[in-house]
User: Fold this.
Amino acid sequence: MNTALIQKIKTAYQQSFKTEPLMIFSPGRINIIGEHTDYNDGFVFPAAVNKGIVAAIGKSDSKQSKALAVDKDNLVTFSLDTLKPSAEGSWENYVFGVVAEIQNRSKTIGNFNIALGGDIPAGSGMSSSAALENSVVFGLNELFELGLTKEEMILISQKAEHNYVGVKCGIMDQYASMFGIENHALLLDCRTVTSKPYKIDFKDHELILINTNVKHSLSDSAYNDRRSVCESVAAMLKVKALRDATEYDLESIRDKVTPENYQKALYVIQENNRAVQASKAMEAEDLQTLGDLIYASHHGLSKQYKVSCEELDFLVEQAKANKHILGARMMGGGFGGCTINLIAKTETGAFKDTVSKAYKTQFNRACSIYSVTLSNGTGIIE
Assistant:
């Protein structure tokens, strides 16, 4: 956990609101495999990481509430009884959405002040939005003794994103951020919203993330478009979600869907299977098979689901050309963000140099490279 960040947020709160806050840390997440399967009731394999959102929160005696984005130096004042979304893309919609969804559950909260900041790299696909939502709902639950379970809190976070941010996200990001376990990944069943933890020991390998530092437009609309394709194909197959379909089932309606939509549905069915196979590979400590599954996941995301981009594909090709990297793929919603790479620890330094130079030459922009460790989920900072 970033002690400098914690102190920065605490100090900003104290200076702005003149009281002592309750401090919350909510982690971002990586996803080893299982991409775009969560909103198809499928399996995903995420883990909480040591980068996240720090929130300082306390009750307010005034007739309004205030939220401070410390990194943006932006203070927003709002009334609990007249909440409505701000302009699209506004950071405060995450806060407003959580408050509104708590109120929709007939829970009563009073006015409060909150200061927020984080160290999740922008646009990295590490789910800063879920970490932010979880930090707010967890803090309000503690502050006003609402008695919400963690399961209820993540559903509030998800609904906030649906209704106030306008992204119809699945449950993976909020779940991984809330329920993370240090040094473990979680095989999460997104239908039952239950998970099995797997201790992660990559032995002489490690995970590194490479951020393209690009976010192509259309990402949110393309996400919602793909979700609707999946839902329409599931309806044609008369199943609740694509998680319930097999490749054989899909073949039976091949002539009734476009080739593009057939490939998108096929990807989801195959990726769901890969997530389960990956958990078995981890259990067997079979890193080679895990790496092969990760590469196959990227191929599907790029060629079938079509949510990759030139920059992500370039980074994965760079990884494939290096025999010390067992697997690499794009991570997150797509159209930018990071690749995740399973690399031999002894080769990380050399690969960072090689790939940084190649990326700069190809795109005339820098990529950013991070190592991450797997952390516990959302909680109070003691």
Summary: The chain is about 40% helix and 25% strand.
